[in-house]
Specification:
The chain is α+β, with helices and mostly antiparallel strands and 447 residues long. It folds into two domains: 3-110, Ubiquitin-like (UB roll) (Roll), CATH 3.10.20.70; 121-438, Creatine Kinase, Chain A, domain 2. Helix content is 35%, strand content 18%. Strands 7, 8, 9, 10, 11, 12, 13, 14 and 15 form a nine-stranded mixed sheet that branches. Strands 1, 2, 3, 4, 5 and 6 form a six-stranded mixed sheet that branches. Strand 5 and strand 6 (95-103) form a beta hairpin. Helix 12 (406-412) packs across helix 13 (414-433). It is globular.
Length: 447
């Protein structure tokens, strides 16, 4: 048994079950529950799952084309360092968790595992002597559920629905004080960086800020753990914490904004040239983000529901644009101390797989630097008002661009591009076949 597993079992005699977690391409946790006496088998490399577990659709269904092509071969699942931890939200405190990553039978990383894809992208930065620094802002909705729709949990006026989101309202945080305190304590137990929580602009919407780290693979793991933690703690309080991008038709959706800078081998921020403008490398990185943004939307917005964010007044960029201290553009350069000069990528929904999100973002930045791309002039004023070069706002269009993209092929690899495309095509087809309530209301009696 490994030292990590042995120490964990000695430190936590109350834990009887380990939840072995493998994040799939959708960022959904797949895996197994393993009794504590079997924990050693995970660290010895004896846990196997089908490789197709990483390419299940959002409903957990196989993509038959992938199953038949591979014979549904197994991959070896190995634990991710530092992920063996208690889950304090479990009913009786008897569960722990460990994150997994997948390898081929010969021990090489499986190219369809989003974590392995991101690690490959980072090798290109490290060869150039750069270390990307990333941080994420996670938005989520705290709701209740009736028989068919989510319900707001924020305080409402007598006899009515919420009027506005009470942005940065402290009284709303007080309303959920017990749940938020349990969330803070759970973050301490799981050693997840927690920079605070704020009330966001839509009713029942909140934002968690993650601390910046110079290891995007670690940051992606922390985001997935944080999302799972928030959902687990909320459920303990009989609430639903949802990262669904657009849970309410008339309100702003949930996004995941990413801040990114780069350090050289001496630890200096290469985006900082001592001015408010930022270095030429920053502008090149932004140029790469804009040039490759449309091809990457299927990663930024993996769910059918997520494309409903792209509407006027919903705070989601609809074309590749950038600007200084402008929250209406897709890539913003925040003001502040020039030593922290960075870009803020504002397109992704809260449902994006952070491994793949970071992989395409960093690849786009590197592409811009290598090709000396210019982002053009910064946008001033209302960035939502532009009409040219719009991003795809329908899932089928985004998936088609992704499937045919040379940038995606070179950034994520043939295997990831293939399995992700087939998974998303299956999801699109399922939604295409379904008849909605609005269609019945519009056509059943009138035609």
């Amino acid at each position: 048994m490994s030292l990590e597993a042995d120490w964990f079992l000695r430190a936590h005699p109350e834990i009887t079950t380990i939840e072995a977690l493998l994040p799939d391409c959708n960022g959904v946790m797949r895996g197994k529950w393993v009794p504590r006496h079997k924990l050693s088998t995970i660290f010895d490399g004896e846990l196997k799952l089908p490789k197709t577990a990483l390419s299940l659709d959002i409903w957990g269904r196989d993509v038959e084309q992938l199953v038949f092509a591979s014979g549904d071969a197994d991959g070896i699942c190995r634990p991710v360092e530092g992920s063996l931890l208690p889950t304090p939200w479990s009913a009786d405190g008897s569960h722990g968790q460990v994150m997994l990553s997948m390898f081929d039978a010969d021990g090489t990383p499986y190219a369809g595992d989003p974590r392995q894809v991101l690690k490959q992208v980072l090798t290109r930065f490290h060869k150039a002597g750069w270390r990307p620094v990333v941080a994420a802002e996670l938005e989520f909705s705290l709701v209740e559920w009736d028989t068919s729709v989510p319900l707001h949990t924020c305080p409402s006026p007598v006899g009515g629905s919420p009027i506005g989101g009470n942005t940065y309202g402290l009284d709303v945080l007080n309303h959920h004080q017990a749940m938020l305190e349990d969330l803070r304590l759970a973050c301490e137990v799981q050693d997840i960086p927690f920079d605070g929580v704020a009330k966001e602009s839509a009713p029942s919407q909140y934002e968690i800020n993650m601390q910046h780290v110079d290891n995007p693979v670690l940051a992606a793991k922390q985001i997935l753990m944080m999302k799972r933690l928030i959902k687990g703690v909320a459920a303990k309080h009989n609430l639903i914490a949802s990262f669904m991008p657009k849970p309410f038709e008339t309100e702003s959706g949930n996004g995941m904004h990413v801040h990114c800078s780069m350090l050289d081998e001496s630890g200096k921020n290469v985006f900082d040239d001592g001015t408010e403008k930022g270095s030429p490398l920053l502008l090149n990185a932004i140029g790469g983000c804009l040039a490759n943004m449309a091809d990457s939307v299927a990663i930024f917005c993996p769910s059918y529901n997520g494309y409903r964010r792209f509407q006027p007044g919903c705070h989601a960029p609809t074309y590749p644009s950038w600007g200084y201290e402008n929250r209406t553009v897709a890539v913003r350069v925040p003001a502040g101390n020039h030593t922290a000069r960075r870009l803020e990528h504002r397109v992704a929904g809260a449902d994006a797989n952070p491994y793949l999100l970071f992989a395409v973002l960093l690849s786009a930045m590197l592409d811009g630097i290598e090709q000396n791309l210019s982002p053009g002039d910064p946008t001033s004023g209302d960035g939502y008002a532009q009409e040219k070069d719009k991003l795809p706002v329908y899932m089928p269009d985004a998936v088609k661009l992704f499937s045919e993209s040379d940038f995606i092929h070179h950034s994520l690899g043939t295997e990831l591009q293939r399995i992700y495309t087939l998974t998303k095509q299956q999801e699109v087809e399922e939604f295409r076949k379904r008849i909605t309530l609005l269609e019945y209301q519009s056509y059943l009696e009138k035609l």
